[in-house]
Amino acid sequence: MLTISGYQITEQLHESANSYIYRARRLSDHQAVVLKILKQDYPPPEKIAWFKREYETTHNLNDIKGVVDIYGLESDQNRFFIVLEDFGATSVDRLKLAGQMPLTDFLTLAISVTDILGQLHQRYLIHKDINPSNIILNSTTKQLKLIDFGISTVLSRENATFSNPNLLEGTLAYLSPEQTGRMNRAIDYRTDFYSLGVTFYELLTGQLPFPMPDALEVVHCHIARQPVPPHTIKPDIPQPISDVVMKLMAKNAEDRYQSTYGLQADLEESLRQWRTAGQLEPFPLGRADVSDRFEIPQKLYGRETEIAALMAGAERVSQGTRELMLVAGYSGIGKSALVQEIYKPLTRQHGYFIAGKFDQFQRDIPYASLIQAFQSLMRQLLTESEAAIATWRNKLVKALGSNGQVIIEVIPEVERIIGPQQAIPTLGPTEAQNRFNLVFKNFINVFTQPEHPLVMFLDDLQWADGASLKLIQLLMTAPESHYLFLMGAYRDNEVSPGHPLMLTLEDLKKANATVNQITLSPLTLAHLTQLLTDIFHCQPEVVKPLAELVHTKTAGNPFFVNEFLKSLYAEALVTFDYQQRGWQWDLATIQAQQITDNVVALMAEKIQKLPSATQAVLKLAACMGHQFELERLAMVSEQSPQDTATELWAAIAEGFVLPQSDAYKLMELEVEGLSEQVAASYK
Fold first, then answer.
1. Which of 202, 307, 588, 632 could serve as a FRET partner for 13 with CA atoms 20 to 30 Å apart?
2. Cβ neighbours around 675 below 10 Å, total
């Protein structure tokens, strides 16, 4: 057992990938404490920063009785540890309560956890790892608290990326669908409701809803499979309580509870009935569930036909075909959002999704977008097990033969899988081009297999270089090419019949390649009315006049619609009335504000409201492309990564910068001249 100066360790409580948890006694005052100790003796700076952030987050919650008190952050011989209170509690999972709790005890516990979670959400904090091991209970006093804020966030929304399940933040069995990164949905406070639902499910039934051993199968279940209702597993569970759990575990956040207030009211009604009558009569759920959060639903409106076409294409490819699916439309119309709907069927098929984006100012760099896409694939592969990486190594070496260096020269990450390769002979330009095309075709065939189809999304094809277009043509016409779904998005208003992209598509059609196209139109008044109905939780006739105004101002462009609505809320033109328990607005006041109907001006105005230091660091980020690493930005801005991150914070909070798993991404601002004018604001 570890020894820590100044403390006598008495018991190990838990061990995770990053830390040990021990009970201990502080020698200076004999105070009983709990120590959370980083595993590494000499942790890297980013691990120390993560640990300090957890300490600061928890320390800022010390006034909430339902959060474990924190005494300090200390180190002993380069080993960092957090000192926490010990109130004689044990985690709910170690107490072995699952499936064993009397209903009164379960409801009492559920109400307490919900109340604590509500206090966290009032602080705009998302826990992101609610599960029985992070709920601790003193069995004697019945005092209950939440612990482990290591991955919690105070961002209103976060974006999880499509990645290997082994890299996901949180505890896989309890992850919300959006936390898997495969739902085309951002993470907000309602992710905690899903995890809470899984926790309640396990405590009631004694089993997890999705107890599969395969991680990818669990991910697929979270996003696509309905759990067996708790009362079906254990008939003595009253159906209203089973219904509460199923509502918490809805796949779409919009279908879950929208507030802890509404959830707590239903749990308290259940407890009242159970105590007075010993049974529960059915009652409508969510009667008190009104949220004061301004949340724009993330589901796609008016895209049912297009999503069906996308799913049909994915199904055809999973049967062994190759297909090019083009998504056309104005900038801001929702092309990328539509494409990401492919995540769900692709997870079921155990496929890979990779993406690249052509850059208006990098057309002279051949294959830039394709290289970007396959670099992300290599990073995905390198997160797999050693056995899986060895299998990929054998397949790649066999496919590439003596030409491995051809691929390494454009995708250096490949060398981390197959190792150094022999030099390749120098050829003339035409021969070198032909060699590359042949080797790349063999390379991509390794990943397009029945057991794992490949989806490759190339954005902004209107800016594609000639070499990339020729390679796309080769991949789509090669007889040995199967299980490949190539999706490309482009702005159809920026290409003429003589554009290289259009000429390439004509050649593909002449070669009988499968080419399908989806053209996205603006949202109609009916779509906007439904959107506003969902935002404000009221009848369509109430929001229709506002929907008409929004439609007039935005012409139904989804990007502009979202930004326009956010500006109404930011300017307090739409507010929540706590007495009436509903949203209110005054149409005449909104019209009198003369809010611009130009999205460029609206976004530029929002940027100008950011702190000057944030604007300065955004100038540099904008010059680095649509994606950047914090360390590189810090180097360019000549300051520490911590200071750079601090200056970025306001831009992240406003949605201009999106944190990814391994980088940061600038909001896509290419809306009819927006990139140029916003760049002017940046620069």
1. 202
2. 19
Q: Examine the pLDDT at 321 and tell me if it is beyond 90.
A: yes
**Coil vs helix vs strand at 343:** helix
Looking at residue 159, its pLDDT comes to 60
Q: How far is CA 552 from the centre of its chain?
A: 32
**Ramachandran category for residue 530: left, alpha or beta (phi over 0 → left; psi -120 to 50 → alpha):** alpha
Residue 165 pLDDT: 57
Given this model, what pLDDT does residue 27 score? 94
Domains of the chain in sequence order:
7-85 (3.30.200.20), 90-277 (1.10.510.10), 304-519 (3.40.50.300), 525-597 (no CATH), 601-682 (1.10.10)
> For residue 167, what pLDDT band results from cuts at 50, 70 and 90?
low
CA separation, residue 454 to residues 150, 183, 303 (Å) = 34, 17, 24
- Are 515 and 328 in contact by the 8 Å Cβ rule? The answer is no
Separation between Cα atoms, residue 328 and residue 492, nearest integer Å: 6
CA–CA distance, 630 with 12 (Å, rounded to integer): 37
Q: Helical H runs in 289-385?
A: 304-318, 335-339, 343-348, 368-381
Locate 532 and state its tokens: 């506003």
Q: Which helix (H) or strand (E) holds 261?
A: helix 260-277
pLDDT digit string, tens, across residues 55-75 = 999 999 999 999 999 999 998
